[in-house]
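Record passed on here:
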Amino acid sequence: MKIRPGSPFGSSPTSSESVKGKKRTGGIFGALIEGASDATTDETPSTTSTASPARSALAAIAAQSNLGNPEEATAAVRRSAQSLLTLSFSDDLNASPLSGQMADDLANLAASDPRFRRKMLSILSRLKTETTAHVAK
């Protein structure tokens, strides 16, 4: 049997060996996570009047959720994903009658992704801590 150049069964540099050392970047919901991280790190709690819509939405979800409860944490991650998706949709897409269903379906997928869930819970817990510390002052 002949192995063609570039075949995954060969030992050429185009085989799967060249991919093994590369770190997984982003994933499916990587841009959504980056957007959430950017929205939460760019501003301080004292600038809530000029806060981005994403930060405001995530801060409200964090404040209303008990992240120590697994069911509430899952619901918070799902609501966060839905809010971020809706905010990232274009005006034309938001005007579509199917945008709500699409945001729901994508939010369910995002909430079931372990990497997205871990990152979103980290962001929500940080926002909850910042909001609690800001209110206590």
About this structure: The CA atoms of residues 61 and 76 lie 6 Å apart. The helical segments are 17-20, 30-41, 53-64, 70-88, 91-95, 99-112, 114-136. The chain has seven helices and no strands.
